[in-house]
TrEMBL record:
InterPro entries: Chor_mutase/pphenate_deHydtase, Preph_deHydtase. It comes from the Eukaryota. Gene3D superfamilies: Periplasmic binding protein-like II. One of its GO terms (cellular component) is cytoplasm. Pathway: Amino-acid biosynthesis; L-phenylalanine biosynthesis; phenylpyruvate from prephenate: step 1/1. The keyword Amino-acid biosynthesis applies. This is prephenate dehydratase. GO terms for molecular function: prephenate dehydratase activity. It is an enzyme of class 4 (lyase). One of its GO terms (biological process) is L-phenylalanine biosynthetic process. Its EC number is 4.2.1.51. Keywords: Amino-acid biosynthesis, Aromatic amino acid biosynthesis, Lyase, Phenylalanine biosynthesis.
């Protein structure tokens, strides 16, 4: 049965932080399309699943590497929004299991990283096992022996009967946030009108070497952007695998210093400014692509 509602791809199963972030952004006006990995979320995007949510950075453990590796080759996909979610990790076990019984802890690598101090302190002998998502770890717990635990959101203890919370707030710092991107299947896709958008206008540029050349840190781009009064919010680097060894791809997240008003007129002006900047930044040895405006 089709509901006629728009579909949004998320990392599944139900109970992941990505699903929670997507719900915070899109609410109940859409249908959530669960995928097995961040790459599958991007791969699922099409005219019938026009948006997806992918994690971008955590305030404790840093960049979500898988996301940036996908952004090296986004094809037509285009970042159209952002969501910040408070992350509060729990240690979850099968009902009745005690801390001293645990020998194996499963979770997404980001969650394992964010809870490193807890694991070293309370479970120094336990093996950490990466799963495709935090909720996938909780689901796997159901068919695992009693010496296993999962790190995930407390919601998972309600979603998967038979599990219970042993510890809450186990991340290294009490204050823990992950920022997510809302990614569209193409740059022509605009966010639905029912959303409330409360963030500043931004854009994401990807700077790649032309084939068989190497790319140094593009300091001239930084100087150019500063000269145009553009604020560089962050610069990320990943290896560019199709080029000479140790070559780089750079991601620059930018915003204008004076564009806080999000009226459609101002947003259009910002979009044009970004395109015009990008067209001036290419050289014979590198390309600049705009891979998001939001
Ligand atoms: O596994 C999940 O629940 C996710 O949504 C993925 C993810 C991530 O990749 O950063 C999202 C938020 C948390 O930082 C931990 C894991």
């Amino acid at each position: 049965m089709t509901t006629g509602k728009m579909e949004v791809a998320v990392l599944g199963p139900l109970g992941t932080y990505t699903h929670e972030a997507a719900f915070k952004f899109f609410g109940s006006e859409v249908v959530y399309n669960e995928q097995d990995s961040i790459a599958d979320v991007c791969g699922a995007l099409s005219s019938s699943v026009p948006f997806g949510i992918i994690p971008q950075e955590n305030s404790i453990f840093g960049t979500v590497v898988e996301t940036y590796d996908i952004l090296r080759n986004t094809g037509p996909n285009f970042v159209r929004g952002e969501i910040v979610l408070k992350i509060n990790h729990c240690l979850i076990v099968k009902k009745g299991v005690k801390l001293h019984q645990i020998r194996k802890v499963m979770s997404h690598e980001q969650a394992l990283g964010q809870c490193m101090d807890f694991l070293a302190d309370k479970l120094p002998e336990a093996v950490s096992v990466k799963t495709k998502s935090t909720a996938a770890a909780a689901r796997e717990l159901l068919d695992s022996p009693s010496d296993c635990a999962a790190i995930c959101s407390g919601i998972c203890a309600e979603l998967f009967p038979g599990l219970e919370i042993l510890f809450t707030s186990i991340q290294n710092e009490r204050s823990n946030f992950t920022r997510f991107h809302a990614i569209a299947y193409s740059r022509q896709a605009s966010l639905p009108h029912f959303l409330t958008i409360d963030y500043e206008m931004k854009a994401l540029l990807r700077i790649t070497p032309c084939s068989k050349s190497s790319l140094e840190c593009p300091t001239d781009i930084i100087a150019f952007l500063l000269d145009q009064n553009i604020i560089i919010g962050r610069i990320d680097r990943r290896p560019f695998v199709d080029s000479v060894p140790f070559s780089s791809v750079y991601f620059m997240e930018i915003r204008a210093s004076d564009l806080h008003d999000r009226s459609s007129h101002r947003f259009q002006a910002w979009s044009q400014e970004v395109e015009s900047i990008a067209s001036k930044l290419g050289t014979t040895s590198r390309q600049t692509h705009v891979i998001g405006i939001w």
